[in-house]
């Protein structure tokens, strides 16, 4: 039986996706998100100098924060992520070799899936959880239908088309983890703007889950 790396306990299982962030702004932006109450940060590898930004974030973040990379496509990238101190791996697809290497490095893994076939393949590879993307296309009902055939311990996250505006659509179906991109951060936003978006996001999430 494949051993899964567990998703760490979090008050709010929200992953902030900082696509396009630059190393020189990483400390301020990540600091603002953490101060607001977000404890999982994903820096996609198609950002400028992503491993440098990940290293900066990993060094400054408290121990209970989960820092890592998105858009990871190769085993070599897993090794570079590990060297940078990353503990979270998010992919756009299901590549068993990538999931396996990340698991060997004790990383939390969230491969991207859209179908039951992809979801079950990722589960067999030992993924911590699944990133259903684009969630806006599947909707809560589509994710719920696929979830019925999956191992119950898998963390299910909705990503793509999800924001503070529609958390309740998903939380009513028992989907409580989310990846949040442009609703939180876009290149060019100031630290103050990101902090305000984080505040609004957390308020909306807490209201949706009845916190």
Quick one: how many beta strands?
Answer: 8
The helix-and-strand class reads: alpha/beta
| Beta-strand percent range | 15-25%
Written as H for each helix and E for each strand, in order along the chain, the element string is EHEHEHEHEHEHEHEH
GO molecular function: 2-dehydro-3-deoxy-6-phosphogalactonate aldolase activity
Enzyme class: lyase
Pfam family, one: Aldolase
EC number: 4.1.2.21
Q: Can you characterise this structure?
A:
The structure is a single chain. This protein is an alpha/beta fold and 211 residues long. It has one domain: TIM Barrel. 42% of the residues lie in helices and 18% in strands. The chain is built from eight helices and eight strands. It has an eight-stranded parallel beta barrel with strand order 1-2-3-4-5-6-7-8, surrounded by five helices. β7 (155-159), α7 and β8 (177-180) form a beta-alpha-beta unit. α1 (23-36) runs parallel beside α8 and α3 runs parallel beside α4. The protein is globular and about 45 Å long. The chain starts with 13 loop residues before the first strand and ends with a helix. The relative contact order is 0.16.
